[in-house]
Task: inverse folding
């Protein structure tokens, strides 16, 4: 009986990216825990940049300063 | 001190249906647990169909295939 | 696709009371929203009294002062 | 590793008020728990008044009756 | 800025299985969304079987009846 | 109507520290948003170190490697 909630800043995640997350996490849980996928629910919630705080600052402010969350090369 | 969160796919739930859920659940908790209703908060969150995954697929895709969540007759 | 989370202070809720909450809320959602009960998951989480704050005070402190959450007669 | 979620009724909270909450809570956690602010994430979620139930009623209904959540003088 | 919460029934998930979930989901999010893994937090919460309701019944009752959540062969 | 959830790794947070967080956050919300503290609920949830993943690793593993979440001097 798994339930998964994913909270993300709203920064242009596409429908296809959401589907990839949903199928990938469901497959991982099915394999690792041997859970029936019909008992696995995944909810994605996108959060406005004014509504996410990191290190004491709104992400919208961090983005205005040019600070991103991208994977560093 | 109860707090209840209800997450639902966004599929046309009316204001009256929400009120029925809120009053029904508050009454149930008041009766079963003898809790003061003034200490009972209920939050409903509707989730877009692209953002809910079930059995590894977006609910929007399931609905396009004609698969509903309705009670089976 | 409903998911319901119930957070309660840990104050002696019995297995039977939990079952009554689970069946009552599932029935209410099934009736009001016409949802298949097999798509309805309900999670109960009991919270220690030191870990719940109300009006700026720990519930454990409120209980020591004789303040309860019981329905007022 | 703190994560904080704040759920509020959507009643005109400004960007500046959100920033004050984010910086104030991050500072408090940093001081009280000695946590690195770069490990502290805070998410604010505003809830429509039809979607928040208090004492068995939608907040939208309470507001129509003139009942507010303001601090009492 | 992703935060992921995984709720599971408490049925013997090992430390290694948890690590596999954490690394697998973090890698998936890093690849699909190009997010810095240092901004990705994942929280696993195991739920007692009396505290999870499915289709109106406690999972503990379903397990006593021999109904499992295992992937069907 | 604010509800706040604080998730923390379980690393020896004392009852007094929890009370300081609860009163501090309630006061902040009362001041910034002019909310009645009797409508403000705060829930603290401590998470085992095996159950929190950061940057793809369990916090228990990070701690074994000597990596802490303490504020850097």
Result:
């Amino acid at each position: 009986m798994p339930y998964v909630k994913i909270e993300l800043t709203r920064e242009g995640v596409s429908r296809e990216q959401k589907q990839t997350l949903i199928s990938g996490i469901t497959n991982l849980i099915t394999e690792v825990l041997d859970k029936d996928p019909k008992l696995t629910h995944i909810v994605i919630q996108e959060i406005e940049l004014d509504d996410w705080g990191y290190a004491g600052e709104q992400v919208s402010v961090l983005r205005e300063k040019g600070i991103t969350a991208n994977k560093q090369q």
Summary: The CA atoms of residues 66 and 72 of chain E lie 14 Å apart. The helical segments of chain E are 15-33, 59-64.
